[in-house]
Structures are given as structure tokens and as C-alpha cells.
Amino acid sequence: PSLLFKLKSISDPSFACIMDNNELGCKRNDALQELEMLTVNAKEAQQLILTKILESNQASEYLSKFMNRSTNTSTFKRNVPVVTYDVVQPYIARISTGEDSSIISGDRIVELLRSSGTSRGEPRLMPAISEDLDRRTYLYSLLMPIMNKYVSGLGEGKAMYLLFVKAETLTNSGIPVRSVLTSYYKSPHFLHRKHDLYNNYTSPDEVILCPDSQQSMYCQLLCGLVERQHVLRLGAVFASAFLRSISFLEQHWCDLVNDIRIGKLNSNVTNTECRLAMEGFLALPNPELADELEEICGHGPWKGILGRLWPNVKYIEAVLTGTMAQYIPMLEFYSGGRIPLVCTMYASSESYFGVNLRPLCKPTDVSYTILPNMAYFEFIPLEDGLRVTDDEEVVGNDKLVSLVDVKVGCYYELVVTTFSGLYRYRVGDVLQVTGFYNRVPQFKFICRRNVILSIDTDKTNEEDLHNSVTRAKKILEDRNHILLEYTSYPDTSTVPGHYVLFWEIKSTCEGVKPLDPQLLESCCISVEESLDYIYRRCRAHDKSVGPLEIRVVEAGAFDALMDLLVSQGSSINQYKTPRCIESGLALKLLNSKVTASFFSPRDPEWTV
Ligand code: AMP
């Protein structure tokens, strides 16, 4: 039974049509009418979702501790505490080793979704039930109807969306552990989607499902180039992945053009499913197309190249909010600033959240409208503006504000309660209310609590970075040097981007030899080895993050940094070295004091 089905059972007949799964995807206007109704009735929808979650999960060990099997929503609000992953983790661990899903949910946990970020060094795994796929599909089904309102003719061509799966594993009890997108692309909801004019992708499913991201990227670009005149939309889920693919194209266009010229797929693509799926694209040699592409890629500038390679493209879609905003300038470079950049949705492993109802606005102005049928949403007000509460801080139950009661202009941290067993769980995202659509608030994504470094889907917090640096600096100490100070910076001027650490090092005895490059390289790899699973996967498997760099700065560089930041308004008494550099001036200052730079000599260890 889908969520849609569940909602059908309530007395309010106005919800009935939201529930009819068969309608989804085919009747585009209906989707928008449904959205209208859902947002007008947001309060009722949220109350209903909470009631359904409580009815479904009241017998779970977790909920009955606080609710004594009641399904009363007031009891929930009074008794159930606001929690972070530390509280959820022991339950996930028990399910991983074979205990019944009923300890947290009334439905079977069918997969654990590996979210980015860690809790005390452990990767976070979010429980999911089969019905969650219906919810995700529902959100996806709204995206094209929304776009169609603003851009015409989208049904007359194809989308080159560069989509990738990640490696997955099984728990001891046999539950798949995978990323939420991998779960979706492998699901029947995606693979058996009803084909219509609006989900006509250039990439065959077999190529999207190829576990080798380089081979997948090569084939997906090849399909997009072959179909270049038909491509109306370009995109990827995250801007980082889109740009990495364009940089891959910059490196490999000769091979791609050659394949098109001779009508034969490069032998480096060894994946059998990919080779089979690509046969149709390269059935005959196509020297005319090869000549056109060679002219564009080999003889013209790369600034604005996307519009020349895909002359009919109407927009580029990717997440460009939050940490992805760092990629806007690069995307504007390749698009020549003339192709709209569109952010359509906001989602996570815990739950999908919302959609952008004004998709053609500038990426910096994007607000997401929360869909009140995805989960039960509550908000922790961040009273003094952007001061972000930390994980340890206990948040009183009475502090929480419900979805329809948030106030325009205010900042909040997002809390979700889901069907799959998260109750009043702090997602960690900080949002600002920018307005309302009917009764539903619209939020600007401000930041993810604690995350200081992110290049792709990796999200490194201050504690993880500190622990990694602390481990690596022992290598220095063994060789008569100490690390006096450090900070970091996500360098996205390279593709892929990479983490930069600025280190001020002091020797602890007279006559110590100058820093040996091997020593610093060992420090680089040591930091990487102790960063989390997703970081190491991005580095070693996805190749979406480049080797970590340590830039050694001269003595006194961090004092100069303090002087600068104090001159910019930091309090001298409370000054703490920022563990990540945000201001352009601070970065310029540190870069001007660099005496040497070192990179990781190899990939960090990573196993599925
Ligand atoms: P994960 O659970 O690893 O998929 O990561 C989900 C997190 O990614 C969210 O909680 C946000 O912090 C971030 N995120 C997802 N979508 C967006 C978006 N559209 N804009 C900004 N951040 C996003």
C-alpha cells in the first residue's frame, strides 16, 4: 500500500485524488491540482501524516517507550524527545544484525540508506520501508509539471541527465545498504517508469546502472553527443557531478569523437551491459557529426561550450544551493551565462522534502516549498539568528514549531518524523522561511549544521577534520615538528575539487632538517585515511574529489589571519581559529604565506 493509498482512507474526500497512484505521471495538470490541494490543506495533511505514522508504528519498541501505545498526537508532542543520530544508531545497529524492524517501525525496513556525514566517526544509516519509494516518486512526478509551466516544448526532445549509482553492500542480516539515489535508480519505480515525452533520457538505464562511474560517464556523454540536436535539458543531481562530467568531456572528447566517427565503442568500456546498450547509438560511422564535434571541442573556446554542443538546450538542472553554490561560477563559464540554471528539489536520505516552484529564479534566490505529505515536519527556532545549536544541546519538546506555524524571515533547524522509524530526528539543515505557498512555508537552504568541507556528496564536519588532523600530526611529532595551527578550504578551482589544509609547522629542536616532502605526503594520506566512508569513496571510487593538499605556511601566518579577522569584526577575546576559511581576503592572506605544498600520493583505502 502506498502513502497515497493510506491517505485515501481518511474521511476528507478532498485528499482522495492525491492518492491515486495511477494518475501520477500521466495527467500532468492533475499533479499541479493535487499540489494545490496539498498545500492549501497543509495543516490537515500534516496532522494526518502524524496520525498515520503513530497508528502504523505505535507498537514499535521505540515509540511505545514514550507513548505507551497511544496514537494521540498531543501525547507525541509532549512525550517524544528531539534526537540526533546517536540515539537512533543503536536501533539501526540492532536491525543490521538481524533484529526485527518492529523495534522502530510497523513496516519492514527493506534497506538502509547511507547518508553523507557521520556521527562520532560512524556513517549514518537511515531506515527505509518499501513505501518510501512511492513518496520519492511522488515528488519526482511533480518536477516536470512545474517546469512545463515555465518552459514550453519540453516534450519535443530529450534530457541528457548524467545519473550514477554508487557501490552498495549488505548488513549481516542481508539488508542492502546503499545511497538513496542508488536505491531509486535500481527500483521498479524508475526502471519501469511509464515512458512519456517528459522522461525521455539520452542515457539508457543499463548505462546509468553501470557500477563503474568512469565507463558510465563515458557512455552517457557519448549518448548525449550523438543526440545533441534533440537534447533540450542537461543536468545531474548535483552540480559537482555535472561539472565533473564536463571536465571528463574536456579530457576525453577526442576518444568520444573517434567512436562516433568510426561507429565503434572504445575498447576501454568493458562493461557488457553498457556495450550492449550502446550498440544502437553507434550503429553506423558518422563522420559528419564527428567533424562538427571536433570543430567545437578542438578549435573553439570552452567558455560557453554547452550551448554550442547542445544548441537546443533550454536549461541545466542540478542542485546549486547549499555547498553546491560554490560551483555556480564554473557552470556559468561552461554555459556562457546564457542557459538558465535550475534547482528543482530538496531531499535527503531521511526523507524527501520539497520542490522549487519558481524554477527559473537565480540559484541564489531558490526557495523550496515543503511537501506536507512526505513526512511530519517540525522546526527548532534558532533564536539568535544564525546561531546553530550543536548536537549535544537538548532541545525541549515545547520548543518545536509545526510546519504551518513557522514565521517568515526566521531561521530554523529541520526535524522530521517518518514512517520508517525516525521520530523527531534532527536532520541538521538550517533553513530560512522566505514566504508561503498557500499554507506551506517556503525555505531557503542556509547550511548544514557543522559541515565545513564539501566537494561532492562528502560532508566533513569540524570534529571529523580535527580527529583526522590530530592523527596525522603525530607523524610530524615523531620527526621533531609540531603543528601549531591549521585551517582548511574546499578548493573547487580544480576539477575535481579537493580539500586544502593550511598548516603552520614549527620545529622542536635546533638544526632540524627542512621538511621532507615524503613526511608531508604521509600526513596528507593519513588525514584522508581517517576521513569518513563517503569522503574515501569519493576519492578512491567515484573520483569526484581530488588528492588532499597540505599548504605549509610561514611562521606567523595564523597571527596575521587573526589580525585580519579581528579587523573584520571578530571579537579578540573569543577569537578561535576558524577551521575552514570562508572569506576571500583570509584565503588570499594565507595563500600569500605558503612556502610549500604537498599532495596525497595515492588514494585512501576504501572498501565497499
Ligand atoms: P544525504 O542524506 O547524504 O543525501 O544528504 C542530504 C543533505 O544534502 C540534506 O540534508 C542537505 O543538507 C543537502 N541537500 C540536499 N538537497 C539539497 C538542496 N537542494 N540544496 C542544498 N542542500 C541540499
Q: How is this structure best described in words?
A:
- The chain has 608 residues and is α+β, with helices and mostly antiparallel strands.
- Among the domains are: 152-313, no CATH class; 451-599.
- It contains 22 helices and 22 strands.
- An eight-stranded antiparallel beta sheet has the order 9-10-11-16-15-14-12-13. A four-stranded mixed beta sheet has the order 2-1-5-4. Strands 3-6-7-8 form a four-stranded parallel beta sheet, with helices on one face.
- The chain is globular and about 75 Å long.
- The structure holds adenosine monophosphate.
- The site of adenosine monophosphate has 15 residues, from strand 1, strand 9, strand 15 and strand 16.
- Residues 115-116, 180, 319, 321-322, 343, 346-349, 427, 429, 445, 448 line the site of adenosine monophosphate (AMP).
Question: What's a quick, concise take on this entry?
Answer:
The protein is α+β, with helices and mostly antiparallel strands.
Notable characteristics:
single chain, alpha+beta, eight-stranded antiparallel beta sheet, four-stranded mixed beta sheet, 22 helices, 22 strands, disordered N terminus, binds adenosine monophosphate, GH3, acid-amino acid ligase activity
